[in-house]
């Protein structure tokens, strides 16, 4: 039987009433305004304003939604999640440490200059230069060199075999060497030049980023002549804008808001299971989680199905491991500790004072606090004394990646590498070299190192299977569910969201 936490039921009821009221009020206010949205001017409501439009400076959803349409990447993924050509039309493994790419010869940047192998080399060396200081460096630092080997070929060299190379290169945007060198980092961010399906037009800070369709684009043309990305932090306002017809797409809705627009004459929900995993991270170096029994008690206290069905509306999917079926490295049959609150309570009681001490549960406003509060209640039900500590996202992230000494005893998070490879999830969260890891286990370290140092997929899968089993036994992490992302869309919009949370405007259509 699915158990619905008493506290979370009350919270859900209050939230539903508040959001419903806010949405009605905002819809009334906005409906009187003339519509600015539609096929000619497509309007997207983001949560926040982009922090950067330079694709090699920042990695966050609101920035990515915008700049991914300005730039092309070396490779991409199709709507089914398979690796697909983009600027590179083909690739081959020359040796364990070398891969050669064939580069398209029919691509021009938005200023009319041709994209060449030198631009690819420049882009790789720019993002892998520690002095450049890209937050994405850890995703590409296995690349040691990039060389133009011919008029349309580029060779990448890695530090040892690196099986996740192509998966990571999905995120490598190609920037124009001549522009970046001429104007510098800050000016390029303020007025980016790419080769993608949309051309940067304007960035009115605090208002919107506007893009114009690139009618000379080498690939599939986009259906919208102009696109405006606006920052609308309040989710109920994003829904109200859709219902009023003043926007065409709104990101990051929850299940309650999605339910509001299911019967709307102007809007509809669109959702997909992503590669993002919601999880609890325990710090085994801090009491009471220095005791394995207490960590396992936490795992047994969490009713994942109640979270998914009772709070998230069934959009998300409970998982037993710190990956999703969208990742390479997902292993069928992994068994996580079963939901058993009675046994969990017995363990906590047997622990005596260790089970009674106050435990900080770290969170940030960007996360679904209905889930955080439900987790707190579930742990309280087995006798654990958990206090929620809300901090701004910057402070949360700083502590989360500061190693065992500064990492909270317990924290809620959602992880995505946007690469769909286990190396991008398990290595940073579990390996002792990563600031994100609060776990120390030499066996796990060796397995993760072996999995990222061989091109043999069977050997990689065998290593990841052992890592999953260690996590299930030792419980440094508790995987909760594969997160769904829910968008609100105008009725005429035809679009299939993808697991890697990309918003490819030229893969959309508009049917009245």
How would you summarize this macromolecular structure in one to three sentences?
This is ABC transporter substrate-binding protein. GO terms for molecular function: peptide transmembrane transporter activity. By secondary structure, the protein is an alpha+beta fold.
Shape: globular
Strand content: 15-25%
Our Rg estimate from Cα atoms comes to: 24 Å
Number of strands: 19
Helix-and-strand structural type = alpha+beta
- Biggest β-sheet description: 11 strands, mixed
CATH class of one domain: Alpha Beta
Distance between the termini: 44 Å
The low-confidence runs, each spanning 5 or more residues with pLDDT under 50, are: 1-35
CATH superfamily of one domain: Periplasmic binding protein-like II
Summarize model confidence as the mean pLDDT.
91
Query: What is the CATH topology of one domain?
Result: D-Maltodextrin-Binding Protein, domain 2
The percent range for helix content is: 25-40%
What does this structure look like?
With 512 residues, this protein is of the alpha+beta class. It has a domain of 168 residues: D-Maltodextrin-Binding Protein, domain 2 (3-Layer(aba) Sandwich). The protein contains 17 helices and 19 strands. Strand 6 and strand 7 form a beta hairpin. Helix 1 crosses helix 8 and helix 15 runs antiparallel to helix 16. The radius of gyration is 24 Å and the shape is globular.
What are its keywords?
single chain; 512 residues; alpha+beta; D-Maltodextrin-Binding Protein, domain 2; eleven-stranded mixed sheet; four-stranded antiparallel sheet; 17 helices; disordered N terminus; peptide transmembrane transporter activity; ABC transporter substrate-binding protein; SBP_5_dom; SBP_5
């Amino acid at each position: 039987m699915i158990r619905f936490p008493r506290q979370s039921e009350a919270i859900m009821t209050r939230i539903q009433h508040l959001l419903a009221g806010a949405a009605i009020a905002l819809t009334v206010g906005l409906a009187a305004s003339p519509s600015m949205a539609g096929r000619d001017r497509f309007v997207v409501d983001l949560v926040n304003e982009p922090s950067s439009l330079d694709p090699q400076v920042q990695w966050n959803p609101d920035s990515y939604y915008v700049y991914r349409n300005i730039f092309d990447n070396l490779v991409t993924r199709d709507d089914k999640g398979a690796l697909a050509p983009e600027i590179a039309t083909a690739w081959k493994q020359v040796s364990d440490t070398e891969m050669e790419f064939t580069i398209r010869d029919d691509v021009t940047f938005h200023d009319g200059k041709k994209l060449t192998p030198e631009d690819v080399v420049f882009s790789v060396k720019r993002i892998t230069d520690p002095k450049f200081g890209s937050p994405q460096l850890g995703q590409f630092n296995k690349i040691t060199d990039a060389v133009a080997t011919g008029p349309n070929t580029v060779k990448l060299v890695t530090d040892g075999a690196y099986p996740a190379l192509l998966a990571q290169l999905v995120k490598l945007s190609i920037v124009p060497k001549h522009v970046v060198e001429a104007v510098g980092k800050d000016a390029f961010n303020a007025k980016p030049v790419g080769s993608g399906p949309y051309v940067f037009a304007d960035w009115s800070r605090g208002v919107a980023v506007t893009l114009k369709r690139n009618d000379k684009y080498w690939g599939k043309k986009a259906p919208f002549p102009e696109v405006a990305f606006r920052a609308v932090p309040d989710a109920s306002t994003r829904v109200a804008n859709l219902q009023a017809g003043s926007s065409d797409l709104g990101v990051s809705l929850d299940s309650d808001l999605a339910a509001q627009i299911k019967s709307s004459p102007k809007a509809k929900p669109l959702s997909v299971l992503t590669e993002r995993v919601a999880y609890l991270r325990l710090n085994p170096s801090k009491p009471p989680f220095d005791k394995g029994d207490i960590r396992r008690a936490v795992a047994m206290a969490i009713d994942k199905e109640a979270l998914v069905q009772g709070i998230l509306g069934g959009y998300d999917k409970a998982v037993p491991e710190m990956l999703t079926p969208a990742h390479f490295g997902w292993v069928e049959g992994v068994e996580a500790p079963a939901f058993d609150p009675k046994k969990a309570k017995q363990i906590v009681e047997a622990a005596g004072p260790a089970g009674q001490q106050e435990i900080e549960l770290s969170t940030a406003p960007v996360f679904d606090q209905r889930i955080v509060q439900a987790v707190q209640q579930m742990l309280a039900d087995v006798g654990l004394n958990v206090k929620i500590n809300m901090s701004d996202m910057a402070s949360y992230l700083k502590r989360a990646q500061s190693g065992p000494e500064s990492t909270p005893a317990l924290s809620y998070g959602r992880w995505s590498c946007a690469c769909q490879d286990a190396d991008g999830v398990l290595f940073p969260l579990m390996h002792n070299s990563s600031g994100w890891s609060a776990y120390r286990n030499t066996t796990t370290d060796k397995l993760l190192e072996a999995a990222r140092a061989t091109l043999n997929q069977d050997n990689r899968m065998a290593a990841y299977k052992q890592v999953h089993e260690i996590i299930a036994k030792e419980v440094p992490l508790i995987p909760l569910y594969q997160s769904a992302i829910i968008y609100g869309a105008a009725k005429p919009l035809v679009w299939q969201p993808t697991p890697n949370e990309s918003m490819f405007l030229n893969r959309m259509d508009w049917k009245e």
